[in-house]
Structures are given as structure tokens and as C-alpha cells.
Amino acid sequence: MSKPTYKELLDAGVHFGHMKRKWNPKMLPYIFMERKGIHIIDLNRTSECLDTAAAALKSIAKSGRKIMFVATKKQAKDIVKESAKSVNMPFVTERWLGGMMTNFSTIRKSVKKMNNIERLLGDAANTSMTKKERLTLDRERQKLDKVLGGISNLNRIPAAMFIVDVHHEHIAIEEAKKLGIKTFAMVDTNSDPRVVDFPIPANDDASKSISLITGYVAEAIKEGLADRKQVKAQQEAKATA
């Protein structure tokens, strides 16, 4: 796992914050300077925070617990979805339903309904369904899959969340806090870094910046999963020796 270099962070525009008039004073420790009315993020602090976040995420993945990826803003959703899929982790990239975590049992019922519809539609032996009924069910399945498809295999509350834009995903963060879920997030100069456990000061609007940070997060998780697999293999070898 190679951490992004200073040049890579610069090239991706990770250092570009918001206009000074939109800033959150709590971000002061992470701001390097102001240039032409725009705050510039201190990339040394970004690098430090990436180290801390990566180590914690790797440890969580190694323990076998789930890390949910959350990003519903247009420029982030596809990037985050692909990163989550690459490490087989749950994700929410369309819309955060109120109570998605705090009312998880109800959400699981909706997921179960979606899975049942999929089984029903996929059953070739089921010939009693009319074309109209099949079309209606398929529309319902697509609607449910759009919102819940990323958490269809999530059977329990995740141990952590990785979030792009804490300002935009404030409901998800509030629910995580209530449940004691660890939060990792890209935090821009217009947000309060204190609302998450592991803030990563970075431009959360540019797709290149989002891709670079999210990719590194996914790599840390991948290493944790590989370590877990290795430990399991060693344990099995000992057991059969």
C-alpha cells in the first residue's frame, strides 16, 4: 500500500478548499494559507491524517468487521461505489434513508423483500405470473435495489463508516454517533472536523481528489483483509499439523 505522494495530492487538487467566506473556523488547524479568497489545505496534515485513518481501517478490516462507504453527491457516488465493491464492503451512494442504521431491523425487512422479489423473478418454473405483474415487480425491485442494493449483504451494523463530505452526509454521521460506529471522512474547509472520529482534510468536491483518497482507503482495507486471510491460513495449518 503506497501512500499518495505530496505531488500526487497536489496534482489531484486535494489542497483546494472553499472560499474564505464559507469556511468553518474549526478547520483552522488544517489550513495552510489563503490564496485569492480561497483556503488552501495543509497537505502535511492531510498526509498525517491519512496515516492514522489507514492504520485504523486496516485494523478493523483485519478483525473481520464491516466498513460502510457513504457518498451520495454526484461527483463522488460512482467512485465510492467502485472502491467499496473492490473490497466487498457495503455502500450507500444514492440516498441515505433516515433510520438506515438506527432503525436497521426495518431496513433489513426491505432488503429481504427485495431479495424475495429477485428470487421470484428469477424462478423459471414460475409461469403463473402475468407479463404486467412481472413488470410491476421488476420496477419495484429496481427501485429498492437503487437505494438498498449496496447493503443487501449487510446482516449487522457496520463497525465503521468512510464518508465523503460530512456536511452533505450529516444524517449518516448523526446515526453513526448514536450507535458508536467509528467515522472516517474527507473533510473540506466548510465543515467541522470534530463531528467525525478520523477527519481527513481534503477537497471533497473534485473527482480526482475523491478518487485518490478513496482509493487509498480501499487499499488499506484490502491489506487488512489480506492479513486476516493469512492469519486464518496459519491457524488452520497449525490445527491440522
Keywords:
241 residues, alpha/beta, Rossmann fold, Helix Hairpins, 2 domains, five-stranded parallel β-sheet, three-stranded antiparallel β-sheet, 7 helices, 8 strands
Secondary structure layout plus pairing:
Blueprint: H1 6-11, E1 16-19, E2 31-35, E3 38-41, H2 43-62, E4 67-70, H3 74-86, E5 91-92, H4 104-122, H5 131-148, E6 160-164, H6 170-179, E7 182-187, E8 198-201, H7 207-240
Parallel strand pairs: 4-5, 4-6, 6-7, 7-8
Antiparallel strand pairs: 1-3, 2-3
Description:
There is one protein chain. With 241 residues, the protein is of the alpha/beta class. It has two domains: 18-101 and 157-240, Glucose-6-phosphate isomerase like protein, domain 1 (Rossmann fold, 3-Layer(aba) Sandwich); 105-150, Helix Hairpins. Helices cover 50% and strands 14% of the residues. The protein has helices at 6-11, 43-62, 74-86, 104-122, 131-148, 170-179, 207-240; strands at 16-19, 31-35, 38-41, 67-70, 91-92, 160-164, 182-187, 198-201. The strands form two sheets. It has a five-stranded parallel sheet, sandwiched between helices. Strands 1-3-2 form a three-stranded antiparallel sheet. It starts with 5 loop residues before the first helix and ends with a helix. The relative contact order is 0.20. The mean pLDDT is 93.
Explain briefly what this protein structure is.
The protein has 241 residues and is α/β, with parallel strands linked by helices. It has helices at residues 6-11, 43-62, 74-86, 104-122, 131-148, 170-179, 207-240, and strands spanning 16-19, 31-35, 38-41, 67-70, 91-92, 160-164, 182-187, 198-201.
